[in-house]
Design goal:
The chain contains 6 helices and 15 strands. The chain has 225 residues and is α/β, with parallel strands linked by helices. It folds into 2 domains: 133 residues, no CATH class; 73 residues, no CATH class. α2 packs across α3. The N and C termini lie far apart (42 Å).
Amino acid sequence: MTPVLTGTAPYSASAPFTVTASRDYDPEVGTLPAMSLGRYEIDLSGGEAARRLFAAGARHVTLPRPVDVTDTADAAWTVRALSFVGDLSSLAVSVDWQLHAGPDPDAWRHYGHLHPPTAVLGTADPAAAAREWRNAYYICKCVFRYGPGFIQVRDRRYGELRRFTIDEPEYHEAIAALTDGAHVDAIPQPVLEDLMAETLVLRFGDLLWWAPYRVRRWSEAPMVI
């Protein structure tokens, strides 16, 4: 029987999906009977699902199908999957997945803070694009954290540190709504325009994805990250 992880579903909830998980970062080792955790059906928010899988011992998770950011008809899956991969990345869980980013060879950089996929589909050389992603990847590349009365975002996806300290209540409310995906009408237009201008929010059809994942403990000194 496939365990079902149920709880509070995200706004952008697509149908439940099934992942496979293992205790080891090496996919080959993860197939051994003592290391495989089997299949899990995900029917809750990405953050909660990621934390439960981590607590169960998962260190490697495989998604069931590619994430196509060019297909607005599949926006619910796109937003949900990207959020889930981000939450797994924040816990240093490796993810076996594929991203269809279209023909632009640099489009993957919007997602370069997520654990690198095995292929960046739609590009001239999917394996080469994935290799470039892996070479540039490190944990905490685009994150947000809560402080006393403020939210701080640190973003190095584009090669330099962009740091934002957000203390306006309307932005706090927007980020809370965006964490697991939100409908475009749920976010005040001026706030949304500001966040999208900094590529902190990406739009897929009528759904929005909050790109930074939450960090609770720095992997290195914050000034290094």
